[in-house]
Specification:
CATH topology of one domain: Rossmann fold
CATH superfamily of one domain: Cobalamin-binding domain
CATH class of one domain: Alpha Beta
Number of helices: 26
Length: 720
């Protein structure tokens, strides 16, 4: 981690709370009986979560719970409570310090509903995948029930649901701008991002007798203020810029104040150094006033403006606090937390997790656990800045990596303790597969940078793209006794990978199980520019490397590219061109999903406002196409599944309307056939027969190197 940002106390430097005398719990208790076994009369902290309790570092409540335990606190878990009354929320008694409330590893609305707003039939974070075990807007509901159970106990909300709803935000499911979740939940404090620093500081300060109302100014937290704190200047960004007749107002997007007096050459260095220091001091005591909730809720353009301002304040090295009025109350958003150092990351992941579901679930299968039980998280954060993704808004764009020793230790623990382990590590990655230990070459530049992405429109020359530490880690990990295979299943940034042919060779030769999933997301540059994704030329470069190294290794391996339908900026013609690319390259997706506007993302601001918010917004700038109607979103998904007979009637109608009837016919040059098979195609054998006849898949299967083959049809498309 950059030394320029190391200004916070070490996570494990606090004096332990007195309750550390009770020692380490085998698992954090979920009942009074378990508390009695541990000799506890009460919990200091109770964590309420919408997920099943898995004592594994990939599950937020376990990680925060074990971290607080390491600080000496007694932590209880209330998992997937019955939210229809306060009874379940009182079952562990009154916590001495606070309730910590989270919706779970996913936003509860994303967890419960598809991008078409249909309720999902399963929940991967629930025993046996059962649906309906959490409410809509779980953070709000759980917080209200905690307040009913114990009126005077502080409530702190966190996790991705609270993190992405920390300011006034567009809510796709209700199709309106909602207030900060801090108001709707009636909580006392909100923590956003990876919450280790905030939660540890909060717990110790409350334990030392401070009131929850006194905990102001903690990085990575959101709270109410009655007035702007003394000493803070206010930068007003409540309106969009309007050029004045004599002097334009200050641009709220300007990165640094312009210098009015140009220094002479002899004093350049001295004056510039002074100016930078002055700017740094001024920024630290400047708060940006965003447009009020009442203003943005009815004005999509002003909402887009607020989104641009907020996304400019995400680098912990230079971010300023934000303040937003909600009626008579002011919501104060502190700058993001300082990233954890490698030593701190190791400390968090080396805590004594049992790595299994709580015994209360018996033999029930928790699908999410089955997926990650033999995977290892090696880093967090992402500097890609993809507009549709929430990783950067939640985890930040500065990469936080574990040490090689800590990672190897966890692999050995999986090998030695997991009864289901067969020698295969399912993933060695994180939010991305190959950003491990990548960072800006200069910590000072990193701390001052305000770019939303380090890799768009091209890779920043200041970014270190050396994959050597990751290659070394792969080699050491797969050489461990008892390890048969290590797969890389996290999302690969192939635009970074092509900068290191040695890494691509290592990956393709040893860590691909026949298929490698990558995400170009689209083929058309006009759409990719709204996503902040690289062009298809980079994909082609990576594919050439992938094919070459697969051949050199004597392996038959295939790339599985994933695409998003109905992303802001996408036209019907764009989707048609993507479908033609898929047909030309022989790809047939089994499942696809349309763009889902998650709270607070840049693409969601585009979706709501109709403007390209990657550029300065105004009321006169041209709109971009936004696929919003049910029919158009369905059409865009149908283009991705051009080979499915059920989509042919819709596609025929669209192609005729687009003047592309030439693509309807029974030849290989056509996208879809000119006639519909009799009856409804319901049985798998009929579907396969028509796929074979009308998509040219016979010719594809004759070529074993072609990506359309018998195995390929089993793969599922990525969900976003």
């Amino acid at each position: 981690m950059s030394t320029a940002l190391q200004t916070e106390p070490n996570l494990f430097s606090y004096r332990l709370y007195w309750a550390q005398r009770f020692g380490i719990a085998p698992v954090l208790p979920m009942s009074r009986a378990e508390m009695d076994e541990l000799g506890w009369d009460a919990c200091d902290v109770i964590l309420v979560t919408g997920d099943a309790y898995i004592d594994h570092p990939s599950f937020g409540m376990a990680l925060i719970g074990r971290l607080l335990e390491a600080q000496g606190f007694r932590v209880g878990i209330i998992s997937q409570p019955d939210w229809t009354s306060a009874e379940d929320f009182a079952k562990l008694g009154r916590p001495k310090l606070f309730f910590g409330v989270t919706g779970g590893n996913m936003d509860s609305m994303v967890n419960r509903y598809t991008s078409d707003k249909k309720i999902r039939s399963n929940d991967a974070y629930t025993p046996d995948g059962a649906a309906g075990k959490r409410p809509d807007r779980a953070v709000n509901v759980y917080s209200h029930r905690c307040r009913e159970a114990f009126k005077d106990v502080p409530i702190i909300i966190g996790g991705i649901e609270a993190s992405l709803r920390r300011i006034a935000h567009y809510d796709y499911w209700s199709d309106k701008v909602r207030k900060s979740v801090l108001l709707d939940s009636k909580a006392d404090l909100l923590v956003y991002g990876n919450a280790e620093r905030q939660v540890v500081e909060i717990a110790h300060r409350l334990a030392n007798g401070e009131a929850i109302s006194e905990l102001k100014g903690i990085r990575g937290t959101v709270h109410f203020v009655k007035q702007i704190p003394e000493g803070f200047a206010v930068k007003d960004s409540t309106d969009i810029d309007h050029p004045g007749a004599v002097m334009p107002p200050q641009n709220p997007y300007q990165e640094e104040p312009a210098c009015a007096n140009k220094p002479d050459a002899a004093n350049d260095e001295k004056v510039l150094r002074f100016d930078r220091q002055l700017i740094k001091e001024q920024r630290a005591k400047t708060v940006i006033r965003l447009p009020a909730y009442e203003a943005v809720k009815d004005d999509p353009i002003l909402y887009a403006h607020a989104s641009r301002v907020m996304h400019g304040e995400t680098n912990p090295g230079n971010a300023r606090p934000l303040v937003q009025l909600h009626g008579a109350r002011q919501v104060w958003i502190n700058p993001p937390p300082i990233p954890l150092s490698t030593k701190e990351m190791d400390g968090v992941f080396d805590l004594p997790y049992s790595r299994v579901p709580h015994k209360a679930y018996g033999n029930a299968n928790v699908p999410a656990f089955e997926m990650i039980q033999h995977s290892v998280n090696i880093m967090r954060g992402c500097f890609g800045g993809c507009t549709f993704c929430s990783i950067t808004e939640h985890e930040g764009r500065i990469i936080q990596s574990r040490s090689e020793e800590s990672i190897i230790k966890e692999i050995e623990a999986i090998r030695d303790t997991s009864p289901a382990f067969t020698g295969h590590i399912s993933d060695l990655g994180g939010p991305t597969a190959n950003m491990y230990r990548l960072a800006c070459k200069d910590p000072k530049i990193e701390a001052a940078c305000r770019k939303p992405s380090c890799v768009y429109p091209g890779i920043c020359p200041n970014l270190n793209t050396d994959h050597t530490p990751l290659i070394k880690l792969y080699r050491r990990a797969r050489a461990l006794p008892g390890i048969k295979k290590i797969f890389i299943a996290s999302g690969l940034r192939y635009d970074l990978a092509v900068e290191s042919p040695e890494y691509v060779k290592e990956l393709v030769t040893h860590h691909v199980g026949g298929y490698l999933k990558i995400a170009p997301e689209h083929t058309e540059q006009s759409v990719l520019s709204k996503m902040m994704k690289p062009g298809m030329g980079t994909y082609d470069r990576f594919k050439d490397m992938f094919d070459k190294f697969s051949k050199d290794a004597g392996k038959e391996q295939y790339l599985i590219p994933y695409f998003i339908a109905a992303h802001p900026g996408t036209t019907d013609k764009d989707m048609l061109n993507l479908a033609l690319w898929l047909k030309h390259n022989g790809f047939r997706a089994d499942q696809v999903q349309a763009f889902l506007p998650s709270p607070m993302s840049i693409a969601t601001a585009m979706y709501h406002s109709g403007k390209d918010t990657l550029h300065k917004v105004s009321r006169t700038v041209a709109d971009i196409p936004i696929p919003k109607s049910v029919k158009q979103r369905r059409l865009h998904k149908a283009f991705l599944r051009y080979h499915d007979p059920k989509n042919w009637p819709l596609l025929r109608e669209a192609l005729k309307d687009m003047g592309r009837s030439d693509l309807i016919g029974n030849g290989k040059q056509h996208l879809i056939p000119s006639f519909q098979p009799k009856g409804t195609i319901e049985t798998p054998d009929k579907i396969q027969r028509f796929k074979t006849k009308y998509t040219g898949s016979n010719d594809a299967r004759k070529n074993k190197q072609h990506p359309v083959n018998k195995k390929h049809s089993k793969n599922k498309a990525k969900k976003y």
